[in-house]
Amino acid sequence: MNDMQEQDRMILDSVDRFCTTEIDPVAHDLEAKDEYPHQIVEKMKEMGLFGCIISEDYGGLGLSTEVYAQIIERIARSWMSVSGIINSHLIMASAVQRAGTEEQKAEFLPRFATGELRGGIGLTEPDAGTDLQAIRTTAVRDGDDYVVNGTKTWITNSGQGNCIALLVKTDPKAEPRHRGMSLLIAEKGPGFNVARKLEKLGYRGIDTCELEFKDYRVPANRLIGGEEGKGLKHVLSGLELGRINVAARGVGLAQAALDEATSYSQVRKTFGKPICEHQAIQLQLGEMATRTRAARLLTLDAARAFDRGERCDMEAGMAKYFATEAALENATAAMRIHGGYGYSKEYNVERLYRDAPLLTIGEGTNELQRIIIAKQQIERNPA
Questions:
Q1: Cα 286 to the chain's mean position, in Å?
Q2: How far apart are CA 161 and CA 163, in angstroms?
Q3: CATH number assigned to the domain covering 120-228
Q4: Residues 96-109: pLDDT tens digits?
Q5: Strands 119-122 and 163-169: what pairing?
Q6: CATH 3.40.50.300: does it fit domain 233-380?
Q7: Which label site among 173, 218, 284, 302 has the fewest CB atoms less than 10 Å from its CB?
């Protein structure tokens, strides 16, 4: 094992210990109260996890996407909400690292890496989700500033965080529409208002909010890349990373459901023997274990393609689609294996059952992933 592999192993081992000692003991209670995990976040700052994939040149850990995906899997296995605190933040950071000016990188990446500036991406609006070109939030140039007006919703890390990568229309009349879209580094300030925290079925404990921008001013030098009209391009390249992350979360949740079902099936007895000895339960466990392993391999395959710098929207889409469906199917199977206890808030499987559906919707619905996969299949294999 070379030095880099040894370093990666040490990092993953430290994340395992972090999950066991810092997340597992409190996840159940914090999730039930929908309470933000402040102490967990502070520990993640100390560990440098907010700088996972930020270059060492800017104070980050400089980890590969492959290692990052394994970190996310481990955290999601303990409590999926905590993994979201890192994911949205690093999509924002990677947009700056990949497309920002040298001045923007020098100013913001070190602060992102420490978690001093922490946040996510402001894309979705009440009438624009998957169709991002339909956004209505505008940014009008006024001297050395942009003046922003509009509404964003379902924005992760926007309550407790203090900065987002904000997708806006700098030219609402542009055709095609994406040529009028830009991405701004938006720190909280006058006119940047958190309107409300959204109540959710699952994915609790993390702040998901609706934002209102009323004559909010952003310095023009916060335009990522320094050129208008490139915002959608910056966002879409970042979503490959986001989908790998969500796939890793799916793997973690699928593994958690498998772990819970495997353990419970060995202690619960019916008709004089543990239920794991009944063929009906064995069939379920066999399916769950296979789905989990397949999901993990697809996710690592996509992460490695991303690390090689290859276009990987097909691979990321496959991983995201399969792994999140595996999470949903495994969570459902774990609940059924637990019987009545699976429906009780006393057991973790009830939380897994509520968390899993979000993964099939977020970062592009699974219906959209299948369309992306099909289009790439055709494009890569012309008749």
A1: 28
A2: 6
A3: 2.40.110.10
A4: 999 999 999 999 99
A5: parallel
A6: no
A7: 173
Structure pTM? Answer: 0.95
14-65 pLDDT, tens digit each:
999 999 999 999 999 999 999 999 999 999 999 999 999 999 999 999 999 9
Domain over 3-114 is classified CATH 1.10.10.10: no
Cis peptide before 219 (omega within 30 of 0): no
Domain residue limits, the chain:
3-114, 120-228, 233-380
Tokens of 252: 């973690």
Any bridge partners for residue 183, and if so which? 167
* Nearest alpha carbon to residue 189 among 231, 147, 126: 147
Between CA 314 and CA 301 the distance in angstroms is 11
HSE (side-chain half, CA atoms, 13 Å) at 156: 23
| List of long-range contacts for 362-369, beta carbons under 8 Å, 24+ apart | 362/246, 363/239, 363/242, 363/243, 363/245, 363/246, 363/320, 364/130, 364/239, 364/243, 364/317, 364/320, 365/130, 366/320, 366/321, 366/324, 366/325, 368/130, 369/243, 369/317, 369/318, 369/320, 369/321
Tokens 């980050």 -> residue: 60
Catalytic positions are 363
